[in-house]
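Late entry, evening session. Most of the bench is empty. Finally got around to the prediction I had been postponing all week. Sequence below, unchanged from the version circulated by S.P.
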Amino acid sequence: MPNILICDDEKDIVNALKIYLSDPDYTLFEAYNGQEALDVIASNDIQLVLLDIMMPVMDGMTAMAKIREISNVPIIVITAKSEDADKILGLNVGADDYITKPFNPLEVTARVRSQLRRFLKLGGGTAAPEVMTTGGLELNDRSKEVFLDGEAVSLTPKEYDILKLLLSNPDRVFSPKEIYSAVWKEKPFGTDNTVAVHIRHLREKLEINPAEPRYIKVVFGQGYKIEGDKRK
């Protein structure tokens, strides 16, 4: 199921694009400036970005340059009809295509499908590994199973998604808000306790001594991480 990020500082534009792209095969994420877009991409496996140029905090061109440092995900620039210079600059900086306001819904969906087809079917992206391990912990994303020292562990869907997020990004520290945004797909407001409860339950299932965890570590004042397998 492709993950699509829509980034525009105008909420009406974001909502319109969400309507045009409403499809059970898509999971839609939203951001309202370039920095928010980078945060979403850092926390999620995004397959396509719709990116406005003129935004506060961080503009689209700056965000695009930073995205291109870490990913070849397709980027479709959002421009006004008269902004030919932005279209050209966007393509030079790293955009794959552009759409102009006001939008033609059929054109939007056609361009999105074209870019996704190229990216997903012609080898544009690097798929996350189906089996992730560290120490005696193994997550098989194809079978949706988790094993600890060879024994199957039963996790809830949210616990599984949190573990997958951490295992997919070894040694990276995720704040509670980043975990909540990535797993619950909602804006995080007062969600630290929700994440802490799920982390505690995960530790109870995965750690011999939850008070001295081998896998899910706390970085004081910052969040949680899983250390990469140092035996490799």
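Two things to note before I forget:
Helices lie at 11-20, 34-43, 60-70, 84-93, 105-121, 157-168, 176-184, 192-206.
The first helix runs from residue 11 to 20.
Will write this up properly tomorrow.
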